[in-house]
Amino acid sequence: MADDRLAILVPDGTYLAVLRQLFETRGQSLGIREIGFDIIKDALHDSSPETVLLLRPYLRSCTHALVFRDLHGSGSETEGAEALEKTLLAELCANGWTRDKAEVIVVDPEIEAWLRFDSTHLADLAQKRARRNREQAELLFPTVRNRAIVATGGMAPTGKPKKPKETFETILREFGIQRSNSLYGGLAEKESLQDCAAPSFQRLITILRRWFPASS
């Protein structure tokens, strides 16, 4: 069995781009030691029933397993993120993974909840990638961002847009930017990880530091 190797099951390419960037370049910011990892993309996305099947080949090669799902699109929106996490974790533990080395993180409502919509990096992205209003992108960004938040349902009590994915996609459309997973990876490379207050992201950091604490 390999030392410190993590199997990560993700529902789409956005997670893959973000997590690969974090593990390849942001280990120090995450507060963990260097580890090996395998990222597996689930072709059936957030409602997939194949979590156990897809991770089974990694039981011998990986010491730990981490599963990500978006709550939105999972089919468990009514039950909530915590209930889905418990269900999936129970399945993992019944099929070879131990409770201390497996975790499930259900992001509510989706990974765009990790974005910082007041970030200078998001504003820079708009300015550099804009195909529409490029010369005015820096000046227009706050207005476009605020208008997108209102148009997609407003702010949640958490201080994040209620529909962060739709908000982000609306901002991109306003500036004529094509959505791609590389946009997310670029933001993951630059953003301050300490400033992301999303509970699911903070839980990720807690899990990683418990499993793979940085060397003293």
DSSP summary: helix tally: 9
Spatial strand arrangement across the major sheet: 2-1-3-4
- What is the number of independent domains? 2
Radius of gyration: 18 Å
Helix content: 40-55%
Question: SSE order, as H and E?
Answer: EHHEHEHEHHHHH
Please give the alpha-carbon distance between the first and last residues.
24 Å
Question: What is the CATH topology of the largest domain?
Answer: Rossmann fold
Tell me the major beta sheet: 4 strands, parallel
CATH architecture label name of the largest domain: 3-Layer(aba) Sandwich
Give the overall pLDDT as a whole number: 95
Reading off the top of the CATH hierarchy, the class of the largest domain is best stated as Alpha Beta
The chain-level structural class is alpha/beta
- In terms of DSSP E residues, the strand content is 5-15%
Write structural notes for this entry.
Helix 1 runs parallel beside helix 8 (181-190), helix 5 crosses helix 6 and helix 6 (137-151) runs antiparallel to helix 7. The chain is α/β, with parallel strands linked by helices. It has two domains: 5-112 and 193-211, Rossmann fold (3-Layer(aba) Sandwich); 117-190, no CATH class. It has a four-stranded parallel β-sheet. It has helices spanning 13-25, 27-30, 51-55, 81-93, 120-129, 137-151, 164-174, 181-190, 199-211, and strands at residues 5-10, 36-41, 64-70, 102-107. The model has no long low-confidence stretch (mean pLDDT 95). The relative contact order is 0.16. It has nine helices and four strands.
